Amino acid sequence: MASPSGTPTKITQGYRAKGGIGESTLRPDGTLKVTGEFAYSSDMWHEDMLWGQILRSTVAHAEIVSIDTGEALAMPGVYAVLTYDDLPTDVKNYGLEIQDTPVLAHGKVRHHGEPVALVAADHPETARRAAAKIKVDYRELPVITDEASATAPGALLVHENRDDHHAGHVPHPNIVHRQPIVRGDVAAARERADVIVTGEYTFGMQDQAFLGPESGLAVPEEDGGVHLYIATQWLHSDLRQIAPVLGLPEDKVRMTLSGVGGAFGGREDLSMQIHACLLALRTGKPVKIVYNRFESFFGHVHRHPAKLHYEHGATKDGKLTHLKCRIVLDGGAYASASPAVVGNASSLSVGPYVVEDVDIEAIALYTNNPPCGAMRGFGAVQACFAYEAQMDKLAAKLGMDPVEFRRLNAMEQGTLLPTGQPVDSPAPVAELLRRVKAMPMPPERQWESSEGADVRQLPGGLSNTTHGEGVVRGVGYAVGIKNVGFSEGFDDYSTAKVRMEVVAGEPVATVHTAMAEVGQGGVTVHAQIARTELGVTQVTIHPADTQVGSAGSTSASRQTYVTGGAVKNSCELVREKVLEIGRRKFGSYHPAWATAELLLEGGKVVTDGGEVLSDLADVLEGETVEVEAEWRHRPTEPFDLRTGQGNGHVQYSFAAHRAVVEVDTELGLVKVIELACAQDVGKALNPLSVLGQIQGGTTQGLGVAVMEEIVVDPKTAKVKNPSFTDYLIPTILDTPTIPVDVLELADEHAPYGLRGIGEAPTLSSTPAVLAAIRNATGLELNRTPVRPEHLTGTQLSEG
Predict the structure, then answer these.
(1) What is the pLDDT of residue 450?
(2) Domain 30-38+493-632 adopts which CATH fold?
């Protein structure tokens, strides 16, 4: 990592020694994970445990004529078989915003793989065999797979009786949500343009492909409630959706976070949570459900595929005149997070550029394709792919360097977004582009050596398809903007409980939040904050559960900002209470207790002049101090449904990439040699974790560019590649060198000046790779991922 530069926020109080803010402390769960000893949710076990299994639909759109469970129920070892008719309450649907997703299909199924029935048995194989014996008679219906079939006159409705709050402002019931953004006069601006470029872009559907498939253990409680041990991204959101279906008050549904093997948005929606609880309450026994990889492809939402039409204009001296765009997102069968994804895609569709006149429309469709929702980048990824391709087209048409063209139009602090909201924190877009362009280039022809070609460095890798013949190098650039935190009026807050006490003669802090640790490193940062604010070395992170207030979702790059802010707030309140105890105990012995500014530093209480007043253990002896406090960022507001104007976002993060690729133009194979990144992080609370987040997000963007796509049959709406045999993700052999240059330009509104960082690298890495491939081949390449047939002109079967 390059040396940070800029103006980091000054920490004016607290402990600055080992393990605090700004240091690369190691993850407390790191050793267990790399040695295979970490307990993930799929590792949980309980005495007398049953196994749950879900029967899923084999068709994408059909009426359910009948369900026969008799043969399954008769099998030895089967304890329960449940269908829609067995659900215990009138609440039979759930959803993040719109409760349109049935717990079990009723009347009809709307997508391939929809849950239809549940089985509990004493062995997982018995449960699978019993599920296979359930007979479901379907009467298939025509499938709705795109905008044309969704909005055609007389089109079937995916949801026949919509009554959600978006239904009144959409032009068709098969449109989940529509968000226009209009500012200025695009027609007049178009007249001023010396050059105009247009593009039709296609963005494929991706899977989050997390390491650990969905799993959990539901344990019935003596009071009639249930305790769910679960891998999720948002405990309290799950609780809010689960309890009404079970017919239980929320205080009888206790939830504890279990080991999470990655998330990337795919665990924001419920998967097997309600199903495990239903089976546990029906049988009176603990029930465990673990998806296999095939089931996982059907058991969670995916990234929205998109069609994007863009028109940009510019003057001959390179200034952007206008943007007109239309973004169509396929939300699949159920709403999930589609409304919020539409808001993000539309409001960030201009990118990190100054454009005064815009006419933008974004919609999400209901179709019979797999449901789509949150995934790293959340609508901004799709838009970035299109607007960055447009920037390259404009630069080429004007005969300008693509980086300098972007820098000429780059936003900065104070720029107004298309929504009319000013960017009120550093926006170093031009500087990030300058830095990433200035980074040293990787050597040419790295595969050559005195012993012959190192095929690992060539397109095709160990398949040994080429020794350099027909290999062409390309270089491409891209930059992106991503919002941080929840937007559009959502009450985004977090809660933290912090306790201080003396244990074995040493002051110890305990931090308790409901934050889902999904691999992002929040447990590391929370300990660092406690050490910084409380002057203690020993910090215990309490397991996350619903016995403390909500921490919101581990998504939107928000946890360090919001839950970190709550931990900081609680620590500050604890510190004040500790100092009050000290004043009470020792005030008569030292006037500084009553008169001076006091700090906690290194386990000692000191004055602002550095004079030691007392050991912290002496102050706390016989005392326990505990505070539970919330932290909220500034409020946001919904975008106007007619103009799109409004202060909808909290904070923004920016990243720029330079991709260097080598392409075998004869075989259509691509090797990404390097993906250099420059990113502003506000304040690097843990520089090592920052580097990991940037490199991880960059690698995920690489997968989007050249390999990852869920293929759905357009005639049947069935998923054709639900396995890691056919759905490819980057391995270590595909991962390029990723040098990173980190800026630290503090956001004065955020704790420590930090800026959410996890998503921005995923935005710009994808279009940078596409730009480099275009540079190598001269092809337009307006879809992602790029496949070999797109580079060679050979048409291959979708199968």
Answers:
(1) 65
(2) Aldehyde Oxidoreductase; domain 4 (3.30.365)
